[in-house]
Amino acid sequence: MKAGWTLDDIAWDDLAYDKVDPEIVKLIKAAALVEHNGADYTEYLCNVFSDDPDFQAAARKWGREEIQHGQALAQWAMKVDPSFDFDDAFQRFLDGFRPDVGASESIRGSRSGELVARCIVETGTSSFYSAIAEATDEPVLQQICRAIAADEFRHYKLFYDALRRYLDIEGLGRLGRLKVAIGRINETEDDELSYAYYAANLHGKEEYDRERCHRLYMAPVYKNYRRQHMDKAVAMIAKASGIRLYEPVRKTVASVMLNRIHRQADKFEAVREQTQAA
Asked: What's the CA angle centered on 187, arms 186 and 190, to 5 degrees?
């Protein structure tokens, strides 16, 4: 779909219920909660960039698109699983996880650092939705995920263009940018994704266990990544970090990272099997 798509552009009548993967449904439910929380992150970014009205306007547009991503994913999830109450799940998510939107300065130490972190987030989301679009056989979910992935690639450019402008002002060096990038990558193990998975799939069935929910979420995510997704992700991370990787090096790094997450997926899969057996 073209940029600026709406929910009405989605071919809902093409939904193929017999091609729905239950494990992917769980991921989509969790992703819908995280995406729909765009308002909190918009408020945070507008506070951090309080004297930059142009960036604030771009951030608000970004936030509206993130919320729409959540709406599209939620609508698909509720169609394939009518028992899923998105509004209740979203409220549970907000009750259990809420970012500090009142901060007036970036938690990354500078505006440049904040923009590096945002680039890393968009790298992760664009690769996630690209991988899901290729992993699923359900045509409507394919359409949704491709549209979201395209948005996330554009969002990366939005934040990267702003980063270039702020680098001229603040002068954050490559080492500082790399530290922020690595730190943000490691935050995939924090409570946001884990609690989203719990709020969407496990609330009322068991107590929240962050590590367990992290593994339940990441096992199917990691196993769906392919070489092309990792090649692109490595290139985007390097660009945001200010590191130039020549193709042979980039491909080697991507291969190492892909092998690593596939090994992790195998380990995490054992947790899912234990859950199913319980």
From this structure: 125
Do the Cβ atoms of 202 and 33 come closer than 8 Å? no
The model's confidence at residue 100, banded by pLDDT at 50, 70 and 90, is confident
* Tokens found for residue 57: 């306007």
DSSP label at residue 264 = H
Rg, C-alpha atoms of the chain: 18
The length of the chain, given as a count of residues: 278
The two structure tokens encoding residue 104: 């007036």
Task: Please give the structure tokens belonging to residue 273.
Answer: 């099997």
- What single-letter amino acid sits at 153? F
Q: What are the tokens at 253?
A: 């790094």
**Tens digits of per-residue pLDDT, 8-44?**
999 999 999 999 999 999 999 999 999 999 999 999 9
Judging by beta carbons within 10 Å of its beta carbon (0-12, 13-18, 19+), is residue 123 exposed, middle or buried? buried
Question: What DSSP character marks residue 17?
Answer: G
DSSP 139-195: HHHHHHHHHHHHHHHHHHHHHHHHHHHHHHHH---HHHHHHHHHHHHHGGGSHHHHH
Separation CA 203–CA 76 (nearest Å): 20
Q: In the structure, what pLDDT confidence band is assigned to residue 189 with cuts at 50, 70 and 90? A: low
- Looking at residue 84, what is its pLDDT? 96
Residue 98's pLDDT is what?
81
**Residue 252: CB partners within 8 Å, gap ≥ 6?**
none
HSE (CB half, 13 Å, CA atoms) of 257? Answer: 19
Query: Helix, strand or coil for residue 95?
Result: helix
pTM of the model: 0.93
pLDDT of residue 271: 64
Rounded CA gap, 128 and 124, in Å?
A: 6
